[in-house]
Amino acid sequence: MAVTSRDNAIFEAGIKLGALYHQFVGTPLSLHTVDSLEKAIAQSISVQPYVKSITVHIDREMVKESLTSFGYTELKGTMLKVDATIKYENHEVSVGLSLKDGYPLMYIKDVKET
Amino acid sequence: MAVTSRDNAIFEAGIKLGALYHQFVGTPLSLHTVDSLEKAIAQSISVQPYVKSITVHIDREMVKESLTSFGYTELKGTMLKVDATIKYENHEVSVGLSLKDGYPLMYIKDVKET
Amino acid sequence: MAVTSRDNAIFEAGIKLGALYHQFVGTPLSLHTVDSLEKAIAQSISVQPYVKSITVHIDREMVKESLTSFGYTELKGTMLKVDATIKYENHEVSVGLSLKDGYPLMYIKDVKET
Amino acid sequence: MAVTSRDNAIFEAGIKLGALYHQFVGTPLSLHTVDSLEKAIAQSISVQPYVKSITVHIDREMVKESLTSFGYTELKGTMLKVDATIKYENHEVSVGLSLKDGYPLMYIKDVKET
Questions:
Q1: Where is the Dihydroneopterin aldolase MtpD C-terminal domain (chains A, B, C, D) (predicted)?
Q2: Looking at the partner chain, which of B26, B68, B103 has a beta carbon nearest the beta carbon of D22?
Q3: Which of A12, A50, B5, D48 has the fewest Cβ atoms within 10 angstroms?
Q4: Contact call for residues B92 and B9 (beta carbons, < 8 A)
Q5: Do residues B19 and B48 touch, judged by C-beta distance below 8 A?
């Protein structure tokens, strides 16, 4: 079957979430640096092709609970809540990453023609 | 618009390529370890949901040309050629990653109903 | 103070453990691919300068316990046990990474002149 | 030989540079996000144990030259200039990462007793 603009919009959205997750999971962070890390992650993804918007939220409560005695921890996939909109030609797709049954799930929220 | 099985197959395919790229780019390698790295990359992606098959090829010529005086280099995106098939419900999507105009491009090759 | 050969041996050992950890944490794995991943990690570090030997062990019990319903998980720092020997000029340093009080600790085991 | 406070200071310094490099190389960036990425990298390392100070500089000229037609590129090791000071007990070690003969070299600049 021919590859459509809808297909490409969704494919690009998947790429962005996979990239974000595997680039940044493991990054050291503390409660003092969580703002800066959220911003850097969002910006690093937003420079990639077809990204219309993205918000990245890291769960402060989970960061707090997992701090070691040294006062820091690492970014885990379960701490992330991401919402992104990708636009490819005349299709716009909204995707998310969030905790579902203890697992960081990536999912398509909506696809629309613009 | 409702999210279809075709959409999800393509979304999962995008996630896998984004993950592969950002997990493994930067890995130290030499001509002696390229086989083992190709295998480990392919296997690490193949354990993820909905992956039907995957092959990973690292360009030996490019590895050779970029070896430092210490006899090793790092995996770069431009060295990778990946072909993967993702199956989600009754849709199968074939995707690729390869060098195009000097840039490691990810693309959809085919989508079919099974 | 002048930088000695002992200093450089230890510095290189630290680099290797930091690199290993942050390159590979987050890698998808299952009980079927753990052997291949251990080998690829050990090889990728062994190609770097001054590495005399390295062994990488991933705790199968911890992998098993953290498998999702999809039958896979991600490499976590706590799953790793690494032993490495770095040789720089006439100094040899043995270092380790292993779980200590719930935390993946990196430490110097021994330094000797050869 | 017994492991000294000097040894541990140097070991910790090596860990930090290895971690920084392998966590962040591959991160997508553009000329508009380079400030934010520098800051996030410096902060993520500074939360780790024994880090007294760290500065991270990304070469804007190299970023500019490697921009794809999509207006972004990825962080490469050769773009990085890092200076860090690690303090462990009564020893302070200054280390650097910078381009040397086309290769991103990590080195000890100074060790002192405080």
A1: 4-109
A2: B26
A3: B5
A4: yes
A5: yes
